[in-house]
Amino acid sequence: MSTAVQSQDPHPAVEPSYLVSKRGLMSWLVTVDHKRLGLMYLASVMFFFLIAGILAIVLRTELFTPDQDFMSAQTYNQVFTLHGAIMVFLFIIPSVPAALGNFLLPLMLGAKDVAFPRLNLLSFYVYSVAAVFLIVAILTSGLDTGWTFYTPYSTSTGTAVITATAGVFIAGFSSILTGLNFVVTVHKMRAPGMNWNRMPLFVWAIYSTAVIQVLATPVLAITLLLLIVERSLGIGIFDPAMGGDPVLFQHFFWFYSHPAVYIMILPGFGIISEIITVHSRKHIFGYKAIALSSVAIAVISFVVWGHHLFVSGQSELAGVLFSFLTFAVGVPTAIKVFSWVATLYGGSIQYNTACWYGMAFLWTFTVGGLTGLPLSTLAIDVHLHDTYFVVAHFHYVMVGGTVVAFIGGLHHWWPKMTGRMFNETAGKWGCLLVFVGFNVTFMTQFFLGHQGMPRRYYAYLPEYQVMHQVSTIGSYILALGLLWTLIYLLHSLWKGDKAPSNPWGAVTLEWQTQSPPIEHNFHETPHIHGSPYDFPEIDKSAGALHH
Amino acid sequence: MSNDHAHAPAHVDDDEHNPHLAHHFDTMGQQTASAKLGMWLFLATEILMFSGLFLAYFILRMFYPEMVLEAHEHLSKWAGGINTVVLLSSSYTMALGVRSIQLGDAKKLRLMLVLTMLCGCIFMVVKYFEYSAKFEHGMLPGKFYSAHLHGYEIEGLPHIFFGVYFLMTGLHGVHVVIGLAIMLWMFIRAGRGEFSAKNYVAIENTGLYWHLVDLVWIFLFPLLYLVK
Amino acid sequence: MAKVFLNGQPVEHPHEVHEHISPMSTYNGVIGALFVLTGLTFAVSFADLGPASLTVAMVVAFVKATLVVAYFMHLKYDDKFHLFVFLGTIIFVGIFFGFTMFDLKSRDALNDEQETFVRWKEQTNEGKGLPVGVDNVPERRAKILAEIEAHGGGHGGGEHSAGHGGGEHKAEAKAEHKAAAH
C-alpha cells in the first residue's frame, strides 16, 4: 500500500474549526482566512445566481406564447441583459475560482493560507462594490445593451451604461486580484514534496484559470474605460459616425471575453477531474495530459476570439484564420473528456450525488462542446449566428458545464466546508431534476435555432410556439431542481449528520485534516510523497474507506 | 522521508522572531519571493492594460496617417523631452534608493525617495502646463474638440487623436500620482525604521512599479511627440 | 521548527536573502546611456526620415526599455521566472496587436475592393467631411464662439507652434472673461 500522505490528523477536534474559532459578525467581515472568504463568496454568488435565475424564469415565461404577454420589448431587452450580465460577471466568473477555489486551493497545496490574505479580503470587497454598481444600474434606468455592450448602440442608448460598465470594470479588478493571488499561491505556497506532478488536477485547473484572469482581464478594463470615455466625451474611436470603427470594440471586448469563457469552464474541468477519480476510486487516467491540456486551453483561448465576429464585418481572411484556430480548442478539450471516461472504465464507481453530477457533466458538456464545432465552421455559422442555436450552445457549456460542475463540487466538498453530511437520496432527486430540466430547456433550443428562431426577441412566429413551450416547461423543472437542492443543503446545516474528515476516501490533502478544517488548516505541515490519486487497495465489498 | 527536517539550520529561529514575517509564510525568503512574483504579475496586468491604448493609437495611425502627423505637431516636443529626462532621472534615483536599502542605509533611502518624488512632481507640473495649453487651444477629446474655432486647422478627424492623447497621458499621469502616494507612504515607513538590508521587498516593489511608469513613458514619448 | 521550503522544494539557507547588488557604476552607466538615447531620438525627430522614423524611434525605445528592465528592475539577475512572466506578457500583447491589426488591414483592402465601407473615409466622402468635435454640439459651439469673441478673436490663426506658456495665458484669459461678464 503506497499511502501518498503521511500526515493524518493525530488529535481530532482538539482545536475549534475555522467556523467557530472566532466569533461575532466583525470576525467575519474583516477575516483574512481563505476558508471564510470562500464561504462569503459562496453566499454572494449564490445570491446573484438566484436573482439572475429568477430573471431567466421571467424571460422563459414571457416566451410561453408568441405575442407580448406581460413585458414590453424594452423591458425584455433589459431583463435578458441583466440576466446575462449578472450571471457572467457576478456569478459564473467568481463562482468556482473565488468560492470553491479560495476554500480549497491552500488546503490542497498544504498551505496555511493564500499568498496574500489581505489582498484576498480586498478583492471580496471590490467584488461587493462592483455588485453595488450593477444593482444601482438596475434600479436607475436599467441596461439594454446585452452583456456584451456592443457599440455604437451602447454609446447612444439612454440606459445606465456607464454605471453598469463601471461595475463590470470594478468586478474585473476583483478577478485580477484573485487570479494574481492564486498564481503566486501555487508557485510559492506548496507544501514540502508537492512538486508540479503531485498537484491535484483542481489546482492545475484553477492555476490555468488564474493565468487567464491575469492576462485577459486588464484588456477588459481598458475596453470598458474606452467605452465609458466614448460615451461621456465622444472621442469617436468606436463610432463610425465620428470616424471610428465599431468592429474594433468587438476585437477589444472579445480579446478578454473569449478567454473569459475559459475562466468560466476550466475550474469546472478541475472539479470533474476530482469527482470522477475519487468516486470511481481509481487513479486518474492521463494525469499529465489533463493537467497540461488545461494550460493548453488557457493559451489557445487567446487566439480564437475572432469567431465571435464572423458576421460582424470582420475580414473574410481573418474569419478563416480564427475559424481554423477555433477547431484547435477541440483537441485539449477532447483529451480531457476521453481521460475522464477512461478513468471511469474499470473503476469501482460509487454512485452518490457528486458522482451523478460528474456523469451529468460528461453528457451536457460533450453536447455543448460538440455543438461548438458547427458554430466555429465559418459557412455554417453564417446560418446559425444570433439564433437560439448559439443560446443553446453556450448554455450547454456554461450551465451544463460550469454550473453542473459547480453544484457537483459543492456536494463533493460540502462535508469539508460545513462539517455536515447532506441527504444522498434528496441529492440524487435534485440532480435528476436539474439534469432533465436542463436538457428539456436547452436541447429544444438547438432545434429552434436551427429552424431560424433569432435570439433576443420577445415575440416570435406562431410555428415556434410548441418548442418554446417545451423549453419553458423545462426551465421550470430546472428551477425546481435547483430550489430543491438549495433546500436540502440548507437543511443539512441544522439536521445533517456530522461529517467524518474523509467521507469519500479521497487522497488529496484537504481530506487529511478535520471537517471543517481548523483555522490554520493543518495541525502540522503535511509532507507529500506521491500522487494525489494513489488510492489504497480497493475493498469492493465494504464500499472502501467509508468509516 | 526522514530527512525533511534534517537540514534546518540552527539560526533559522531568526525568521521565527522576525516581526515582518506573516503567519502563513514559513520563511522570509518565501515571503519575499511571493511578494516579488505578485508584483511582476501585477506589472503584467499593467502592461496589458496600457497595450489596449497603444493598439488604439496604432490603429488610429493606420486609419488616418496624415491627420495623426499633423495633429502631433501641436504637441510640445520640448515639454515631452523635459519630462522624459525628469522621469528617467526619477527612475535612476529610485534604483539608487533600492540599492541603498540593500546595503542597509535607510537614511540614504529616504533621501532618494524624496528626490524621486521631487522628479515625479516636476513631471506633473510640466504636464499641467501642457494640458492647460491644450485646453486653451480647444485641443480636447471628442465632442469637446474646438481647436478649429480657435484658429488651429487640422485636416481630418483630430478629435480622435486628442481623445487618444488625453487617455494615454491621462492614465499614465494617474499612475504617476499613485506612485507618488506610494512613495510618500514608503518614506514614512522608512522613517519608522521598518526597512533594513533583510527586509526591503516593499521598497523593491515600489521601485518596480515606478520603473514601469517610466517604461510606459519611454514608449509614449516618441509615439505621441516625436514620430513623423 | 521552521519548515524550510520554497516552490515545494527544501531550501538550504532560507534565512539568507541573496540579492544581487549592482555597483554604482552600473547605474551611472545605464542612466548615461538612457540620456544619450533620449537625445538621439529627440535629435532624429527633427530630421525627415519619412516612414523610417517610426522604426528608428521604436528601436531606440526598445533599447531604452531593455536597459530599464534589465538593470533598474534587476531582471537580469532576478528569478528567471519573472523574466518568463515579463516576456510572456509581451507575447500576449503581440497576439492582441497582431490579430487585431491583421483583421483591420485585410478588411480595409477588401472593403476598398468591394467598395463597401464601415467607417468614414476621406476618399469616399469627397467634399463632405464629418463634423468635428463641438460641431456636433451646436450649443457648446455657440458658447465657445461667444467666449472667443469676448476676448478678441482666435489666437494663433494657423500658427503651428504648440505648447507656448500655457499657465499665464490661461490666467489672463480667465481674468478677461470675468471682466467681460461683469
From TrEMBL, chain A:
Cellular compartments annotated: Cell membrane; Membrane
EC number: 7.1.1.9
Top-level taxon of origin: Bacteria
Membrane topology reported for the UniProt record: Multi-pass membrane protein
Positions of the Cytochrome oxidase subunit I profile domain: 22-529
Pfam families for the chain: COX1
Pathway terms, separated by semicolons: Energy metabolism; oxidative phosphorylation
Presence of keyword Cell membrane: yes
UniProt KW keywords: Cell membrane, Copper, Electron transport, Heme, Iron, Membrane, Metal-binding, Respiratory chain, Translocase, Transmembrane, Transmembrane helix, Transport
InterPro entries: Cyt_c_oxase-like_su1_dom, Cyt_c_oxase-like_su1_sf, Cyt_C_Oxase_1, Cyt_c_Oxase_su1_BS, Cyt_c_oxidase_su1_bac
Function: Cytochrome c oxidase is the component of the respiratory chain that catalyzes the reduction of oxygen to water. Subunits 1-3 form the functional core of the enzyme complex. CO I is the catalytic subunit of the enzyme. Electrons originating in cytochrome c are transferred via the copper A center of subunit 2 and heme A of subunit 1 to the bimetallic center formed by heme A3 and copper B.
Family label: Belongs to the heme-copper respiratory oxidase family.
Protein name: Cytochrome c oxidase subunit 1
Automatic annotation (TrEMBL), chain B:
Organism, scientific name: Nannocystis bainbridge
Chief place of localization: membrane
Membrane topology (UniProt): Multi-pass membrane protein
Keyword Protease annotated: no
UniProt superkingdom: Bacteria
Transmembrane segments: 37-60, 80-98, 110-129, 160-187, 208-227
Keywords: Membrane, Transmembrane, Transmembrane helix
Pfam families: COX3
Protein family membership: Belongs to the cytochrome c oxidase subunit 3 family.
Record protein name field: Cytochrome c oxidase subunit 3 family protein
From TrEMBL, chain C:
Disordered as annotated region, ranges: 152-182
Subcellular location: Cell membrane
Entry membrane topology: Multi-pass membrane protein
Keyword annotations of the record: Cell membrane, Membrane, Transmembrane, Transmembrane helix
Transmembrane segments: 27-47, 54-75, 81-102
Keyword presence, Transmembrane: yes
InterPro entries: Caa3_sub_IV, Cyt_c_oxidase_su4_prok
Stated name of the protein: Cytochrome C oxidase subunit IV family protein
Species: Nannocystis bainbridge
